[in-house]
Amino acid sequence: MKYLENERLNTISSELSDVVLGDSHRIIQGRIEAYSMKRGGKDKKFAYALGQKYLAEMEDMQEELAATVERVARKRSNSDVSLSVSSFKRVKSAENTASVANDTSNNGDGTQPTDAVVQRRRSKSFDFTLESNNPKTTLGDFSELSTRRLMTDLILTLNSSFPDYDFSNVKPSQFQKVKVDVVRKNIYAKLSELASQQRNPNWLVELWMSLNEVIELKECDVYSFDFNEVEDALWSFHYFFVNKNLKRVVFFTCNELIDEEEIRSSSDEEQEERVRYYNSEAQLVDDFDWDPSDNVAGGMSFEVTMS
């Protein structure tokens, strides 16, 4: 993945880096990075290796599923044979009893109850499906090339953004597709306190507009990633904005943490002070429909005033 230099995103990233919130010992750490989804030489080799790994896992999954189905079918067949032998014995016993009693009427004491028993026992069997062998994931159907490519692109982005980590073994379940508007509201809420410290009252709105200029949010699929980069973080989010038409992805990662060293070096009175944590919605004016899928009018812009 090729890193795309963008002056505005660099400025925002600097405003999100090592920022102390008010008089507290809480720090915001975040950055926004844009990458091209066009793969270079190393990326192609890595993507090919990942692709082969996924194909091997798919084959193993299919073989395991086939073996499981075969075992279930064998058990079911053996059960049917046992039931047939048992049914035959019961039928013969019923016929003998009827013959001794000289009862020529068929009142259901012969084959009819036996069929019912067979039916009841067979109803306990079921079609076996193993959830871990299901190719459908939170990213889509893994048997499709497009889904595997998406997974590879997200991993390549993570490897580029966090060079000290290896994300080769990340699972699809760690990604979740989310709506653009839900993401916007969460970012506004998490960064509202930081926004209140900015000179620009519309700092958050301009952040979102800058993001839109780079990635065209209306054309994006957005994915969240479950990753605890910092264990003691009060909160964190990691969002991928993927625009397949532009062949571009923007990665927005941010967390809030406690500065333990600053706390240890502070006075006893300061240590006793209660840490205030804000998670409220920003009071902003946003006049754009960021999620056209929720708008009956088909994605037309409209005015919304949050008071």
Question: Could you describe the 3D structure shown?
Answer:
By secondary structure, the chain is of the alpha+beta class. The chain has a domain at 6-22 and 31-40 and 142-294: 3-Layer(aba) Sandwich (Protein Transport Mog1p, Chain A). Helices cover 46% and strands 16% of the residues. The protein has helices at residues 7-15, 41-101, 111-123, 145-161, 180-190, 192-196, 203-215, 260-265, 268-272, and strands at 2-4, 19-20, 26-36, 136-137, 140-141, 175-178, 221-225, 235-243, 248-258. The strands form two sheets. Strands 1, 2, 3, 6, 7, 8 and 9 form a seven-stranded antiparallel beta sheet that branches. The chain has a two-stranded antiparallel sheet with strand order 4-5. A hairpin with a 5-residue loop joins strand 2 (19-20) and strand 3 (26-36). Helix 2 crosses helix 4.
